[in-house]
Each structure stands twice: as C-alpha cells, then as structure tokens.
Design goal:
By secondary structure, the chain is mostly helical. Helix content is 55%, strand content 8%. The chain is elongated.
Length: 77
C-alpha cells in the first residue's frame, strides 16, 4: 500500500480542486430537481391539510374571488 504524507495529500487536492469545481458548475443545472420517489401516505395527508388550511385562510381574508363556477381569482402575496 502506498504511503502518503498529509501535506502531499493536501497539495494533490489543491491541484485538482479548481478543475473539479469547474466540472461541477458546468454539469449541474440551475433548474429544480424533479422528485423521483413517491410521497408516503402520511406526508401526502399532511400536505393536503396544510393546503386546505391555506385555502380557507385565503378565503377568509378575501384573497379568493369566485368569478364563476370554474373561474377564480387568487391574489398572491
């Protein structure tokens, strides 16, 4: 097994660091990552409850206006 001094290891890392960082910046995108695993049931129920609470709060504050049965106006903050 090859032995290496910590100073040699740090020097090697410093030499390759800029190339690695440049490659990471080039290959990663600024877009949001797509969720690949499905949500579990409990998480989905919690998120549903949170959305319903947010909707009812917006209704009570008058941020939602019902124009017709299928058309609404939602005032975002």
């Amino acid at each position: 097994m090859k032995q290496m001094d910590f100073s040699d290891l740090n020097r090697s890392i410093d030499e390759k660091k800029s190339d690695v960082e440049r490659n990471l910046l080039r290959t990663t995108s600024s877009e949001r990552k797509i969720r690949t695993r499905p949500r579990d049931e409990e998480e989905a129920k919690i998120l549903d409850k949170l959305c319903i609470q947010r909707w009812k709060k917006a209704e009570s504050e008058g941020k939602i206006k019902y124009i017709s049965d299928r058309v609404w106006y939602y005032e975002f903050d």
